[in-house]
Amino acid sequence: MTKAVFLDRDGVINIEKNYLYKIEDFEFIDGVFDALLYLQNNGYLLFVITNQSGIGRGYYTQNDFDKLTLWMVEKFKEKNIQIQEVQCCPHNPTDNCQCRKPKTLMIDNILKNHSIDLENSWLIGDKSSDILCGKNANIKNTIQVQSGHKFDVNLSEADYTLPSLKQIQSVILV
Q1: Of 78, 79, 101, whose CA–CA distance to 91 is shortest?
Q2: Other C-beta atoms within 10 Å of 106: how many?
Q3: How many other C-beta atoms can be found within 10 angstroms of the C-beta atom of residue 29?
Q4: For residue range 24-75, what is the model confidence (pLDDT) as tens digits?
Q5: What CATH code would you report for 4-170?
Q6: Residue 173: its pLDDT value, please?
Q7: Do residues 80 and 92 lie in contact, with contact meaning Cβ atoms separated by under 8 Å?
Q8: What predicted TM-score, i.e. pTM, was given to this entire model?
Q9: Beta strand pairing status for 160-162 and 83-89?
Q10: Which of 145, 141, 146, 138 is nearest to 159 (CA)?
């Protein structure tokens, strides 16, 4: 079994923008490449799990999301960072699906194809629904970053809070 980091996309990997689906609007958060390279170089597999209700709301299509995702994954490859898999929930919050965070189907799907040691893995998100998803999936360690949605660090249910992924080495020590 191997350890992994499950990352939300918007607000963690890229600057939060409502219903982002265009490559020209995508901006990586400062320090994300160094942070993910650090994690990868220390034995973590990297996965992205992202709620994308803009698809269900008709603001953009699954194809639009897939195009942006392929571009993002390619940008990581150019920096020698391997994203193992990207899982997306395309549903509206009212659809009562099983994949929308804080539910765990995106993680469950990843676990079907990868032997992950959840005791030594991490989930990193910017919303409480991300953190609850990690806890619901029995991921041992959670980090809530302030680079996306703002929150009161004193009210966070995460094990750790950070300004952004840039400070990841202060929490995930190797």
Answers
A1: 101
A2: 25
A3: 20
A4: 999 999 999 999 999 999 999 999 999 999 999 999 999 999 999 999 999 9
A5: 3.40.50.1000
A6: 87
A7: no
A8: 0.97
A9: unpaired
A10: 141
Beta pairing partners, 145: 162
Q: At 86, is the secondary structure helix, strand, or coil?
A: strand
Task: Give start and end residues of each alpha helix (H) in the chain.
Answer: 32-41, 53-56, 62-78, 105-113, 128-136
Q: For residue range 89-116, what is the model confidence (pLDDT) as tens digits?
A: 999 999 999 999 999 999 999 999 999 9
d(CA 50, CA 10): 8
Report the alpha-carbon distance of residue 86 to residue 97 in Å, rounded. Answer: 18
1 pLDDT above the threshold of 90: no
Where in the chain are the domains? 4-170
Residue 37: CB atoms within 10 Å: 15
Instruction: Give the residue carrying structure tokens 């993680």.
Output: 107
Question: In a 3-state reduction of DSSP, which class is residue 75?
Answer: helix
Q: Give me the residue label for tokens 């549903």.
A: 91
Catalytic positions are 8, 10
Structure tokens at 44: 């973590």
Question: Helix 128-136 to helix 105-113 angle, to the nearest 10 degrees?
Answer: 50
